[in-house]
Specification:
- Helix content is 38%, strand content 14%.
- The chain is of the alpha/beta class.
- It folds into two domains: 2-237, Aspartate Aminotransferase, domain 2 (3-Layer(aba) Sandwich); 238-359, Aspartate Aminotransferase, domain 1 (Alpha-Beta Complex).
- The strands form three sheets. It has a seven-stranded mixed sheet with strand order 1-9-8-5-4-2-3, with helices on both faces. Strands 10-11-12 form a three-stranded antiparallel sheet.
- β2, α4 (70-77) and β3 (81-84) form a beta-alpha-beta unit.
- The radius of gyration is 21 Å and the shape is globular.
- It starts with a helix and ends with a helix.
Length: 362
């Protein structure tokens, strides 16, 4: 790692150096897409993808109310309107049935303004891509996949198995340090197999300039740093091994929590080897009390996410209220992420499992 970073420093090619192009191709190949465009963060990957769709004020983007804020934030930032549908109770991913219900309720004018469906592969597990691809086609909307937590996660359709990010018009990934493929700072990537879309994203990431200093439209400064690309190139060959480590630890947790009625273990929609477990999230009774108990035991946990989008103050103008998305609200009240990473030892997991079981009287 240190040599890779030193090579960049010695070259002084800090902005869009050769390591960026190399990483773009390797990530695209890994995901099963033709093109990769490195950007400064996962948020920028989402933002620039929507900009490449020419999203305008008043346009609609259907998405989940239960995710990291960037998913809905980038829609609002462009003046468009987030349109929410509820999540599945088992996977916490966007529920295609709820999405269909929302889309079918739109007026003809609203249907014309629908530009994209933006599902999130939450916690490292793919959404039901077959159903959402069908919805996107039926309602003439682009499918933009938020894969920030799910690089390498797979989905099996009737005729093939694919990695997330390669099915929709674009896949958006984050290299934030907590991700399975994390950098030494912020970073992100857009992958696509659409050549025209890829070129539009490339132009937008450098202020909309083509050639330099000539601007047909306004973009932004969304470039991935060469230092980040160099670090990620060192890490990428280890990604599948790290995924396997997380999957093994998730399976161990699953076994350890078996029979504890108060603990709902993460559902596996297809196969466990398709889920990359960026987080291991349980749903529990008395969640906040359990978190305090685990903290007192020296165990760090996190709540992803305590307030769904439709109840956030900044989205009050959308007109949603409590009870509109009951599954998302239930998840916000009950979910807790336990430590999971490839280096987690069996002894450490036993300690965590015992602490949870003890709390519930097992």
């Amino acid at each position: 790692m240190l040599k890779a970073l030193t090579d960049v420093v010695d070259s002084t090619r800090y902005i869009l150096g050769p390591q960026v192009a190399e990483l773009e191709q390797q990530v695209a190949d890994y995901c099963g897409a033709r093109y990769g465009i490195g950007v400064a963060s996962g948020t920028d990957a989402l933002l620039v993808s929507l900009m490449a769709l020419d999203l305008k004020p008043g346009d609609l983007v259907l998405t989940t109310p239960y995710s990291f804020f960037a998913t809905a934030g980038v829609v609002s930032r462009l003046g468009a309107r987030p349109l929410f549908a509820d999540i599945e109770r088992d996977t916490y991913n966007l529920d295609p049935a709820s999405a269909r219900k929302v889309l079918e309720s739109l007026s003809p004018d609203e249907r014309r303004r629908l530009k994209a469906i933006l599902p999130v592969h939450l916690y490292g597990q793919s959404v039901d891509l077959t159903a959402l691809v069908d919805l996107a086609r039926e309602f003439d909307a682009a499918l933009i996949e938020d894969g920030a937590q799910a690089i390498g996660a797979r989905y099996e359709s009737s005729d093939r198995t694919v990695r997330v990010g390669s099915v929709g018009l674009a896949g958006c990934f984050s290299f934030f340090p907590s991700k399975n493929l994390g950098g030494i700072g912020d970073g992100g990537m857009v992958v696509t197999s659409d050549e025209t879309f890829a070129e539009q994203v490339r132009i937008l990431r450098v202020h909309g300039a083509r050639p330099q200093y000539y601007h047909s439209f306004v973009g932004g400064n969304f470039r991935l740093d060469t230092l980040q690309a160099a670090a990620l190139l060192v890490k990428l060959p280890h990604l599948e091994t790290w995924h396997a480590g997380r999957q093994a630890r998730a399976a161990y947790y699953d076994e350890g929590f078996a029979g504890v009625a108060d603990v709902i273990r993460p559902a596996v929609a297809q196969r466990q080897e398709y889920h990359i477990y960026n987080q291991y999230v349980i749903s529990v009774s008395r969640r906040d009390d359990l978190q305090v108990h685990l903290k007192n035991c020296g165990i760090a946990t996190a709540i992803y996410y305590p307030v769904p989008f439709h109840l956030q103050p900044c989205f009050q103008y959308l007109g949603y209220g409590e009870g509109d998305f009951p599954v998302s609200e239930w998840a916000a009240r009950t979910t807790l992420a336990l430590p999971i990473y490839p280096e987690l030892t069996t002894d450490q997991q036993d300690y965590i499992i015992d602490a949870v079981r003890q709390f519930y009287g097992h």
